[in-house]
Specification:
It is built from 7 helices and 7 strands. The chain is α/β, with parallel strands linked by helices and 162 residues long. The protein has a single domain, classed as TIM Barrel.
Length: 162
């Protein structure tokens, strides 16, 4: 299931693994090992990265990338949240996708960190339908971390009150 704050959306990004030839045009979601190969092809490029990717190494590719998909190996691994904030802070303005078994309770945080959409496996989608995800947007109004939208944290609000 692929969804954004409006609900379920179509996935327009076909994934190409290392053994599948890249198309002559259109869109392609590839891994970092295929960036050089795809650099001069007339493709709209999406890049699927691990949650430990080196942001500085990706910055030169930002102008070529319309989508970055960040892998979440499980819902308890929060490195993807930090990576999303670093990608946005480094200037990535394209579409940012969280990909993996995250849960609906994390949807607001994903959006606050800069993600535009979330791709979850079928097993998660069966347990948590789209309505549950949409219902979670805004359910948490404060957090201990600053969101990408510039919202202050709980700690900053406490300090401001004196």
């Amino acid at each position: 299931m692929l969804l954004d704050p409006t609900g379920s959306i179509d996935d327009l990004w076909p994934a190409f693994d290392a053994d599948t030839p890249l198309p002559p045009g259109g869109r392609a979601l590839i891994g970092p090992d295929r960036l050089e190969e795809a650099a001069d092809l007339p493709l709209e490029l999406g890049l699927h990265i691990g949650n430990d990717a080196n942001v500085a190494a990706l910055v030169p590719w930002f102008p070529r990338l319309a989508l970055i998909s960040v892998a979440f190996p499980n819902f308890a691994d929060g490195r993807g949240f930090s990576l999303a904030q670093r990608l946005r802070a480094a200037g990535f303005i394209g579409r940012l996708r969280a990909s993996g078994p995250v849960i609906a309770d994390q949807f607001t945080y994903l959006l606050q960190c800069g993600f535009d959409e979330v791709a979850v496996p079928d097993a998660v989608a069966e347990r948590q339908p789209v309505e549950q995800w949409l219902d979670r947007i805004g359910a948490v109004s404060l957090g201990y971390q600053r969101g990408i939208a510039g919202r202050g944290s709980i700690l900053e609000r406490r300090r401001a009150r004196g």
